[in-house]
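Running log. JK asked me to keep both predictions on one page so they can be read side by side. First protein, sequence followed by its tokens:
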Amino acid sequence: MSKNRIFSGVQPTGSLHLGNYLGAIRNWARLQDEFEAIYCVVDLHAVTAPHDPKELSRATREVTAGLIASGIDPARSIIFNQSMVPEHAELSWLFNCVARLGWLNRMTQFKEKAGKNRDQASVGLYAYPVLMAADILAYKATHVPVGEDQKQHLELTRDIAQSFNSTYGLEFFPLPEPQIFGSATRVMSLRDGRKKMSKSDESDYSRINMTDGADEIAQKIRKARTDPDPLPGTVDGLAQRPEALNLVSIYAALEDIEIDQVIQEYQGQGFSTFKKALADLAVVRLGPVGNEMKRLTAESGEIDKVLADGAERATQLSRPIVAEVREIMGFLDPKKS
């Protein structure tokens, strides 16, 4: 096994947007140079809430197209959809018998997603973090790129790995480390700078989709909420201006520069000028990605081949690991009987 194996996944729910690109996917492409990389379209996670089967199939292909268009090379990294590798579901059940209710009761994401209707939430939504642990540990991944909202789930993964190791007196699973990006950007809604940009937001003007055309990108940035003041002379001047900070942060991320460099260039200018510059930059950076996504999704056979090849390679890695887990836990192997 590679000393440095990274695993991450993205749900095929809704359309990929600028936040997914700047916060995760663009960085995943860069990690191919440092790690043995495994990237999964987590369609089993997507069915923890009500879903449209046709939409799930479409979104799975679109997300795959987004990964490839953003620079993730299927020849260098493994790209597959979760449901095609049954070891994920099997290991998740085995980990359900290792994890503790108290651990899951502390997961804040379940409380947020279930809201007031907790009794109506699916068991799958409750056990979501256990499946996430199985996703990671089925490959003995050593690193996981995580955002702020996933740190608690990674800690649970480490707890499950440690508990399994302790229970069976082996150092079998590694305790995966978070891979933190210095360049990762937390992209906020274009309509409310205090809320994260989201696929689920009712307003399409709250986000820039990765498949948006030049006119759509420019219009959404032009209509993005701001305040009446010009750009300040220092980064500190953005502290109480969430919408202004969001747009400046997006510009810095797209240009791969620091926020203070953006401030130096545009200080004192109004948002009409800055928004035009931001729109032009976003079109240049996202335009080729969106065009390639559209080309790939129009040729679904190409995407399906990538997913099938990736699933085969993922199975070759995960099957012996999960088989060893079964043996450690005492299950009979008919092949050895």
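And the second, directly underneath as requested:
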Amino acid sequence: MKLAVIGLGRMGANIARNLKDRGHEVLVYNRSFDKSRQLMSEGFEGYQTIEDLTKALPSPAVYWVMVPSGSPVDEILSQLRPLLKKGDIVIDAGNSNYKDTKRRYSELKSIGVSFADAGTSGGTSGARNGACVMFGGDRETFDTLAPMLKDITVDGGFIYAGEAGAGHYVKMVHNGIEYGMMQAIGEGFEILSRTEYDLNLEEIAGVWNNGSIIAGYLMSLAQKVFSDEENFASISDYVDSSGEGLWTVEEALRLKVSAPVLTESLLTRFDSVSSDRVGKRVVSALRQQFGDHPVKLKD
């Protein structure tokens, strides 16, 4: 398939590489041309304007958009819209609010363009080597894109979640759960760090990730976090919140669902009082590990 990837940040650039490695012809565009230039040095076809990008694609064209949620998505769509043709497909693979997705779907449907949402998980490593995708939009669009989605995901790593917004809705709740899981891991290591026993946290994370009930990707990253003592020591206990956790809690309130773990994990991130807490530093370091999210360093 020949398609365009718009937005070459941590995730977008790796999705583009993933697609190219699996035989797809990938055209790239980024607001900052430096990032396009980097991928062009790797053999990608890059463009300085969206207009030139659209001219290079066959009809119907497919656009994989991976930019931050909110106004950046609307800005890209405002540039794309006058250039789109009936039958084109635009995929928002970022962490957009599902309500925005439903609005954008209706706006593009009115001009005959299919707008789809692809909640994408797996961090930067998953984007590069095999992601997990939760797809929302028209079933016909999903069926058209399914071979491509299969190529860039792990085995069993993509689903048709439902109509427009469903993919982003499922990814929203996924990220809310992620908040709770990381908070539990952080709190556990906080307790271990304060005991009178001289414990090796890296070894503990390693054994927990081999055959224990709490083994998994995040625990493997915790082991990696503790393996680099110098880097971990430099990270402050400020933990950023990128939005999806808040949206999940808001949805729980709307549906009158009791979600105390997710809520408390979100509120803990809002606590900006720094006291060099190991648990919060673990959560911040885990976010850096799986998503290459920036961390706040100690002064």
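Observation for JK regarding the second prediction: Residues 14 and 128 are 5 Å apart (CA to CA).
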